[in-house]
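PROTEIN DESIGN WORKSHEET
SECTION A - STRUCTURE
LENGTH: 200
TOKENS:
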């Protein structure tokens, strides 16, 4: 279902940084499978033996990515777990879940339901807490997971900017409502709404 994350030549890194901005209005055009492939790979793809595109404390890789597809060409609406090792999607739930995700946003965030797709970043916070319990003050692993999620989110946002896709990072949401879309034992950490920007 996911093509290899190769693509056309991207702009310079300086240009990508200049292009990166929060986009909350979308054209309604579907995302291509290649675009989604590149976004997921940017967030948690395998970049070498034992390596991923985002840093992780101790190479622990506590994160998981869930794609919520609403309008992605050739990908049925639903939620999917991204498996980095095989660079593939594993179906989780069928149907358009964007409105449900939108309802979980705090303070009214219509872009969560009007975007073409969302990527939910989750993490095994409990496992991180245990792994790094010997580092004062004993909860440092929690911070490491959040740092890892931030790095993955920025990678996705920069890949979106490079490919001309609009993205906005969202952290204001009802954790309980989103937990059902996460791998078992994971906590929701961040959401990215994605879609082609609406012409202004």
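SECTION B - SEQUENCE
RESIDUE ASSIGNMENT:
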């Amino acid at each position: 279902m996911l093509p290899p994350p190769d693509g056309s030549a991207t702009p310079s890194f300086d240009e990508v940084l200049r292009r990166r901005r929060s986009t909350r209005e979308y054209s309604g055009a579907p995302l291509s499978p290649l675009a989604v492939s590149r976004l997921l790979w940017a967030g948690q793809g395998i970049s070498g033996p034992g390596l991923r595109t985002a840093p992780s404390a101790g190479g622990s890789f506590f994160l998981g990515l869930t794609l919520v597809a609403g309008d992605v060409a050739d990908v049925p609406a639903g939620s999917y777990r991204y498996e980095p090792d095989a660079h593939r999607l594993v179906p989780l739930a069928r149907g358009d879940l964007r409105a449900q995700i939108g309802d979980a946003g705090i303070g009214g965030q219509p872009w969560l339901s009007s975007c073409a797709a969302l990527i939910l970043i989750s993490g095994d916070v409990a496992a991180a807490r245990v792994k790094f319990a010997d580092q004062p003050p004993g909860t440092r692993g929690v911070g490491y997971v959040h740092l890892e999620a931030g790095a993955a989110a920025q990678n996705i946002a920069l890949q979106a900017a490079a490919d001309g896709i609009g993205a906005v990072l969202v952290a204001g949401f009802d954790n309980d409502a989103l937990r059902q879309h996460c791998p078992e034992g994971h906590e929701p950490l961040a959401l990215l709404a994605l879609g082609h920007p609406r012409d202004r």
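SECTION C - NOTES
Helices lie at 13-19, 33-44, 98-104, 111-114, 125-131, 140-162, 175-179.
The mean pLDDT is 96.
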